[in-house]
Amino acid sequence: MRTLHYNPSTLEVDFAKAFHELSPQLENKINKAQVIEIKADHTMDNPQLTFRLKDNEGDMHEIVVQIIQRPDNMVK
């Protein structure tokens, strides 16, 4: 499949949505924090997921995951 549009690409958006759907499984792997909220923006040039986490001591944290597809001619 040749990628014609990268802002965002269909593959980036699909990957971000899949990653979002897997978030309950990710939470099970994070022993020291609980996922409180996930903000997803699939319309950005590089789709982004922002995870708000609460650790065992009650402190809040944010983890940002940004999906970036490299141009097809860069992959070898």
Count of domain modules:
1
Query: How large, in whole angstroms, is the Cα Rg?
Result: 15 Å
CATH top-level class = Alpha Beta
> Which outline best applies?
elongated
Report strand %: 25-35%
The helix count comes to 2
Q: Helix and strand string, N-terminal first? A: HHEEE
Mean pLDDT: 90
- Widest beta sheet: strand line-up: 1-2-3
Largest sheet composition: 3 strands, antiparallel
Distance between the termini: 15 Å
Number of strands: 3
Might you state the CATH topology name? Dihydrodipicolinate Reductase, domain 2
Percent range for helical residues?
25-40%
Task: Point out poorly predicted stretches.
Answer: none
Derived from helix and strand composition plus strand pairing, the structural class reads: alpha+beta
Key phrases:
76 residues, alpha+beta, Dihydrodipicolinate Reductase, domain 2
List the helices and strands and how they pair.
Layout: H1 10-21, H2 23-29, E1 33-41, E2 48-55, E3 60-66
Antiparallel strand pairs: 1-2, 2-3
Short overview:
This protein is of the alpha+beta class and 76 residues long.
Write up this protein:
With 76 residues, the protein is of the alpha+beta class. The protein is built from two helices and three strands. Strand 2 and strand 3 form a beta hairpin. The protein is elongated and about 45 Å long. It starts with 9 loop residues before the first helix and ends in a 10-residue tail after the last strand. The mean pLDDT is 90.
